[in-house]
Queue: 3 jobs
Job 1
Amino acid sequence: MNSSTLRIVTACLTVSVLAAGCNSTKPLPLQKSFSQIEVGQSDSTEVLNLLPEVGMLHTTDAISVFNKQGWSSEVGIVRFSSADSTVLRKDYIQLRSQNALLLTNEKLFVFIQSVIPPDVLDEPYENDTRKHLAILNYCHESLISDALPFNEDQPTLGLVGLARTAINEAMLNLSDHPRRAYQLLEQPGFGFRHSVLGKSRLRLDQDAENIFTIRLASEDLVDIVNTW
């Protein structure tokens, strides 16, 4: 290895180490705030006091907040009840990028906690898998409708798009592998490989009689030019 090649390799390694150092596994600001929002209990005043004004957009019954920190970005959407302003649903999406030489480690995390209406829960499903798919589909469709008023905000639109494609392909994989559907309710969740987002896992939890949470995580190594 000649001296010029050695200098290039050393520079690449230095940049990679510095970039990796800028990416932490600590909770991001919105992530911490959203963990304190209680679906079915918190009201709009409590939520507004928890979330930063910077990056916030709002409608009459929803708010959206976007935050970018280094190589990481996050967006959260809260939907309120028109009757009493309590939280009907909270959608949180996080994307972390970490450089590693000529590759980028991309990590997507999606958290949706929602009140599920009786017409979804009380349907006479032929089995539990059908019921769970119906709940997942409701959360997926709700994410789309929750984000619709904020579609002109491109950063929000980009993260919501990633979450939508992740959940959609997870549901397709569940339908194709019904014998593994029980994994959806267990740790670490239903594992599958997403065609774009790589290694992924999806989990469904019931937090109350009509409140459910879905958690989805995807991770892959991609080249630094064609990231997610």
Note: Residues 31 and 163 are 16 Å apart (CA to CA).
Job 2
Amino acid sequence: MALDSNLLYGEMVGSFLAHMAIPLLMSMLVGVLPYMMLQQKLLVFLALCVGLSFVCQLGFLTIMQAISCQGIKDVRSIATGAGIAACITAVMIAIPAYVEPMRLVVSQLFMTHKTLLTPELAKINDILIDAGDRVMKASIPAKTNLDNSDPMPLQTGGAAITVMEYEAQTFQEITNGVMYWSGFAGAYGIGLGSLLAAKCPATS
């Protein structure tokens, strides 16, 4: 029996959405674990994502074979297809995890990236902010009697973030990037896995 294209596309969309949800849920789980270094937290996070990806793809491909072949005929082909799909996920989520520009291009759509400043640069930064505030206050004209509006409020900010805050920011950026890349990995994984899982054994 030939693979129904509607079934294939439907499972690809389902896998895409599931693989976006997996990193989000795993980041929440890893976030409540006792304090670990960022690299340790990242390895646990990625391992959980890949493990759940395998389970997720296994479920989708099992359903695909059950429908396409009128029953589960070859468990090995399902497991092999799910393994291939999980490997695709592992490769694609490693890209935003370890290549900063590839995760920032996604994460900056949802949050502002703040750089980590050394204590010396932080002091210089604070001095510049204070000097900028003074210049702005001196350049804003006093309010007139024609309108009783207050002068435009000054914008402050730009303070340095601590190392722990920077690590938390980095982990959130990685989560955002992994969600995006993992979604496409899930869809591609179903496409490739279906070549094995939906291949029904010949019957005599």
Note: The first helix runs from residue 5 to 31.
Job 3
Amino acid sequence: MSEDNKEVKEAREKFVIEEVNEEFNPIGSFKLITSDELGKLASELFKGIFIDCEGVKFNPGGKNEEPTYSLIFNHGKYDEATLKTEGKVLGIKSALVETNDSSDPLEKMRMMYKITNSTTRYLATDDLSDVVEKLIAQSQKYYNFTTHKVNWKNIMIEFSEQARSGFYSSKPIQFTAVEGISAKKLVQLIYGTKSKEKDGNKDEYDYSVSVLMAAPNGYFVQNNQPSNWILQINRASGKEVTELYNKFGYNTSSSTIIR
């Protein structure tokens, strides 16, 4: 090969296809957050409502299970005056006190049966029940799809935690946990579902929460389980998601009528 031909070949520019820059038109957005960060937002929310709420704990869930949080309640004694001053309500109540306060013998028997078959000596107040019913994860463990009621026996448990200060540990503190609070429904409550009105129609946001991996700055707890996780929260227009599913051939409504 001559030197002239070699120079021509080396001078040839690469064949390049220019970017089209077609409009993307996303139907949603996402953010990354740790389970601790989301938990702090949830803790502030519930502690501002329930005077006996101590905080929350995260459960990443297993295979085919959605991530959940547990609401943690202390066993402190709060009188009516304190509740009124704080502007808060109780989350749990002692089942024994509830039984002793009743004057109906039949009601007492029912309460004793409920206590015997319960995993905790504390019961949810009506206010907490109203909140949990809307936030419980749709799992057979937490929710009875036949009766459409919360499986309180499965979600209320007692546990203890030993506070540590340096090399010293204090006496274990008893708490009551309410498990099975859906991370997705919690996100809906924190970030809201109402979106801006579009073309005269009101729309709502739809969310999903996925566990990506253990956070590098987390520590390990029971069974060598990481305590902090990186979550991906996806938010999309409910209306546009429904339209997309319909385009793909999925019928998201119960009606077979095409309107």
Note: The chain has one domain: 14-247.
